[in-house]
Amino acid sequence: MDAIRSKEAWRVLRIQAELVEGIDKLATIGPSVTIYGSARLGEESLYYQKAEELAARFSEAGLNVLTGGGPGIMEGANRGAYGKGACSIGLNITLPREEMANRYQDLGVNFRYFFVRKLMLVKHAVGFVVFPGGFGTLDELFEALTLVQTGKIAPFPIILFGESYWAGLMDWLGQRMLEEGCIGAADMKLMQVTDSVDQAYRTVLSAYREQGRSTRDNLTDTD
Questions:
Q1: Average pLDDT for residues 32-39, to the nearest whole number?
Q2: Predicted confidence (pLDDT) per residue in 136-164, tens digit
Q3: Would you tell me how many other CB atoms lie within 10 Å of the CB of residue 182?
Q4: 129, 130, 122: which is closest to 152 by C-alpha?
Q5: CB neighbours of residue 12 within 10 Å
Q6: What is the CATH class of 2-211?
Q7: How confident is the model at residue 223 (pLDDT cuts 50, 70, 90)?
Q8: What are phi and psi of 41, to 5 degrees?
C-alpha cells in the first residue's frame, strides 16, 4: 500500500512538472489559433491542403498556429504556418503507437498527459478551427465548447471546417440535444460550420481584432 501511495505521489509531481514546463515555454507566445484534426489525413487530402492554406494566412497576419504536433491535419497546419511570419507550434503527445512530431515547428513542447496538453491548446487561443478527425478531435472540440459554455474561458470562435463531414453531428445536436432540452439555442451558436478558408480566416481575425488585445490568456477568474 505504501508503494502505491508513493507511485501516485510521484505521478502528481510529474503532472506538476509538465504543467509548469508547458506554461513556461508558451508564456510569451501571444495570441494563437488552434487548428486540429485527424492524424490520418495526409497531404493528398483536401482537408490537409485547406489546413495548410488557412494556417499560412493566419501566420502572415501575425497569429501563431498551435497544433497537436503530429502528422495529418496537424502537419498541414504547421507546414502552412512555418516560415510565414508567426510561430508554428506543435504540442506533441506521447502515445502507445508512437507518432513522430512533424518537422514544421518553430517551437515544440512534449506532453505525456492529454489533459495538460488540452489546457495549453486553449490557454492562448483566439480561435479554434476543427477539421475532420476522430475521437481525439471530438474530445478537444467538446472540451473547448464546454469551457466556453460554462464561462471557464473567454469566448472565441469555434469553427468546424468541412460542411459535409460535420453535418450529421450538427443535425444530432439540434434534433436530440437541443430538442430534449439538454442544451440551449445559444449553445448551438457557439459553433460555425464552413467549407471556406476565407470565411474561417475572417471570422477568427475579426473576433480577435474586436477584442483589441495584443496578448491573450483565455483562463478566467472562475477557474
A1: 97
A2: 999 999 999 999 999 999 999 999 999 99
A3: 10
A4: 122
A5: 9
A6: alpha beta
A7: very low
A8: -100, 105
Burial class (CB in 10 A: 0-12, 13-18, 19+), 113: middle
pLDDT at 222 over 50: no
CA–CA separation, 105 and 5 (whole Å): 39
Q: What distance in Å separates the CA atoms of residue 77 and residue 68, rounded to the nearest whole number?
A: 10
Return the bridge partners of 64, or none: 32
Q: Give pLDDT tens digits for 53-87.
A: 999 999 999 999 999 999 999 999 999 999 999 99
Domain ranges of the chain: 2-211
pLDDT at 94: 82
Q: 162-169 — which CB contacts under 8 Å span 24+ positions?
A: 162/47, 162/131, 162/132, 162/193, 162/195, 163/193, 163/194, 163/195, 165/132, 166/132, 166/193, 167/193
What is d(CA 36, CA 76) in angstroms, rounded to the nearest whole number? Answer: 10
Distance CA 223, CA 213 (A): 21
Distance CA 61, CA 157 (A): 17
